[in-house]
Amino acid sequence: xxxxxAFSWINMRFLLDGLWVTIQVSVVSIIFSMILGGIxxxxxxxxxxxxxxxxxxxxxxxxxxxxxxxxxxxxxALPQIGIKLNIFWAAVAALTIFESAxxxxxxxxxxxxxxxxxxxxxxxxxxxxxQTLTLIIMPQAFKSMLPAILSQLISLIKxxxxxxxxxxxxxxxxxxxxxxxxxxxxxxxxxxxxxxxxVVCYVLSxxxxxxxxxxxxx
Length: 218
What we know:
This protein has a single domain, classed as MetI-like (MetI-like fold). It is mainly alpha-helical. Helix content is 81%, strand content 0%. Helix 5 crosses helix 7. It is elongated. One of its GO terms (cellular component) is ATP-binding cassette (ABC) transporter complex. Belongs to the binding-protein-dependent transport system permease family. This is ABC transporter permease.
């Protein structure tokens, strides 16, 4: 096992390039997921006739599908109907679809956790339902949702490794290239990947714990 050769600057830089792609995909996916998940969660919370049931059905279907299947769908199936995405955006689309369903439940639970009296108080003061939702309910709910959202982001970062199946040049993909050229680098590469995933996810875990503590100390 050649540790010094495996941890050369060229290899480490290549791994860091992969980590940067992992972070980019994760950030873009979480932004889109927050938007779509927030909309889906709000629709379900509001109980809009028919629409809330349709959204709920879609969310339940997606949540019960393997993420790998969704990745295959966005990269291999969508081009069959004229929607061609490059590897980066295919991975983003798959993660966004999957994470939106997960986040919608977090949003719905957060909104349901706000006492119903807050809605009644807002509307009795002359606000419309939409104004009450955006100005009173959502700000309160979002604070309680932040730790769960961060936990989901941690899961998303780890889930990006599944995109190696479509050759997304993320951390796992780049590590495979390195130890594919020299089998003596297998264990060092797994050590390096473990360290990088751990640092990123542990920092987010600490932030999640801080937010969780501040929520109860508020």
